[in-house]
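Sorry to interrupt, but I need a hand with the structure work. Please put the record directly below this note.
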Amino acid sequence: MFDWLPDSAPSLTVSAVALLAVDFVVRVTAIAVVPVNRRPSSALAWLLTIFFVPYLGILAFLLIGSPKLPRSRRRKQREINRLILRTTAGMDLVSTEHPWPPWLAGIVAMNRNLGSMPLVGGNQAELVDDYDDALRRMAESIDAAVDYVHVEFYIMIRDATTEEFFDSLARAVQRGVRVRLLLDHIGSLRYPGYRRTTRFLDEAGIEWHPMLPVQLHRLRYQRPDLRNHRKLLVVDGDVGWVGSQNVIDRSYDKRGNVRRGLRWQDLMVRLEGPVVSGVDALFITDWYSETDELLEDEARPVTFPRGPGKLECQVVPSGPGFDGENNLKLFNALFYSAHRRISVTSPYFVPDESMLAAITSAAERGVDVELFVSELGDQALVHYAECSYYENLLRAGVRIFRYPAPAVLHAKHLTVDDDVGLIGSSNMDMRSFLLDLELTLMVCGHEFVDDLRAIEDGYRAVCTELTLAQWMSRSRAHVIKENLARLTSALQ
């Protein structure tokens, strides 16, 4: 009986049973392991991936399934947090000259509890929205350095546009200024000129390190898409720069971008006053994480002496080194607190369920809500994921303005009523909430909000407003792409 079966049939049957057993164990284990401390949408996306493509899904989960930095880096973050809390205990430098809304104190306290930084008064802030001018003026700040310069950017490439910035660093070293520089390893490595840039840093005598390096030959590894996305410059603890701009040509030195005419539009802010010490504290934290060297001399200014300016500012760090999603909680708290107006500028607006509820409910209760995004997305997957939320937003009453191509609106800022403005490196997407180290600056002051509003007015003047009728006429193929991109965005 069954003489037609080959001799290898029993072994094949055993192999098939073994594979089925392994497959069953993988699926059951996934159900038990994947949802732990993970938002439901993300857990569901991972489980679907593992169930449909189990072996590839498990491999992907093992490589990028954990959204946390290695334990040693999280320990260093906690050490710096304790240092900041200890040196700023009992500090109350906020002026009482302005009639701040009653909800602001709670948000300040939340930021303090999550990120350790206090709200400090006496600051000045100047917005710079011209890309080349920002690079030129940062170079001027470096040329005025006497003691030290701290530089930290996600992407740093020496090219024709950024040459003067890098040369100013070399000049600083030549006159005896201590220059320390951090750049994100993967963020910078993937752009033309990385090796040329690092050779220049070495030859100029600049102390530099790659952030979150993935170097298997040196046994340096963590989840490869956990990145340090911060952009900051501190000179002598007196002048600071933060914002959305990287140190690279506006085309990002890619032939495809040049061919399409893509030009990044960013926004930076130049700071003076005690908040600069808070920005420097983030650099000190990241330098400590990468080098095991705690810059105690530079850490002392974290005592935040009051300055002559009028603005109250609070640095809000976030990222996988913290237990919570500091930036997401700040954004949501502001959305729920707004009474009159919310203006959001984000190149990648891919909210989670909590943010979508916060921003749509604000519009539904009568707050004027507007969102500035790029008409043209430089990252197709993220762009389609963003588009998948437009219908919900438009139906709730959110006005969407699209910045015209070929420019890419890369600025990241937010204004709430006439009281609070945010600016920094953080996008409003799940990558910035969970995977990237970010810097957000909260500024309380009508003067600063007015300046940000002027920037927003400039966007509105050149943008095209998207209507619900226009959006509902898009092709079915576009909708399918949106749905697929939205699903992948949850794989965090």
About this structure: The longest helix spans residues 9-33. The chain has a mean pLDDT of 88. Residues 19 and 25 are 10 Å apart (CA to CA). The domain at 71-108+118-314 is CATH 3.30.870.10 (Endonuclease; Chain A).
